Amino acid sequence: MKFLLWVGLPLLALLGLALAVPDVASAWQAKSGDGTAGTFIARYEKCGRNCTWYGDFVPDEGGTPRSDVIVYDGPDELTAGATVAARDTGARRGVFAAQGGSTWLLFTGLAVAGALAAIGWVVFLVYRISRTVAKAWHLAAPNARHRDRNGTQLP
């Protein structure tokens, strides 16, 4: 339990806040159909625990194309050279498939978990520090609670 409080909470806070928070707004914009419409052209796929397609995004009506970006919520049957209607909402690493999906929920969940972990860790630290100070104060002056402001011993 101590490991979870001292290491787990700050790690979860760091991961949730650093990875998800910057792209939450972009994911919600894509969910609501905002952003620059364009076409994602699949170039290559990287697989680990999950497979992710990388490629180029070309806006429909001018604008700046983006290269080597991820397509979030892309179709499962994507192949190299295939195209997907997509929206660029300014996410750091990619664009969102126009068909939609649940990436917005993932980003939101991670951001909320990170924020709650950060709050929980701060509460835990304040609690531990106050307990340590109270214990040190009690050890330094065990009878201090039985004296008035002038230091006179109370019955």
Helices, strands, pairings?
Blueprint: H1 2-31, E1 36-47, E2 51-59, E3 66-72, E4 83-88, E5 94-97, H2 103-140
Parallel strand pairs: 3-5
Antiparallel strand pairs: 1-2, 1-4, 2-3, 4-5
Helix pairs in contact: 1-2
Q: Give the overall form.
A: elongated
How much of the sequence lies in strands comes to 15-25%
Taking the alpha carbons of the first and last residues, their distance comes to 42 Å
SS-derived structural category: alpha+beta
**Oligomer classification:** single chain
Q: Major beta sheet, specifics?
A: 5 strands, mixed, barrel
Report the strand count. 5
Strand order of the largest sheet: 1-2-3-5-4
Return residue spans where pLDDT drops below 50 for at least 5 consecutive residues: none
Topology order in helix (H) and strand (E) letters? HEEEEEH
Mind telling me the C-alpha Rg?
26 Å
The number of distinct helices, counting runs of at least 4 residues, comes to 2
Mean pLDDT: 85
What level of helicity do the residues show? 40-55%
What does this structure look like?
The chain has helices at 2-31, 103-140; strands spanning 36-47, 51-59, 66-72, 83-88, 94-97. With 155 residues, it is of the alpha+beta class. It has a five-stranded mixed β-barrel. The longest helix has 38 residues, at 103-140. The model has no long low-confidence stretch (mean pLDDT 85).
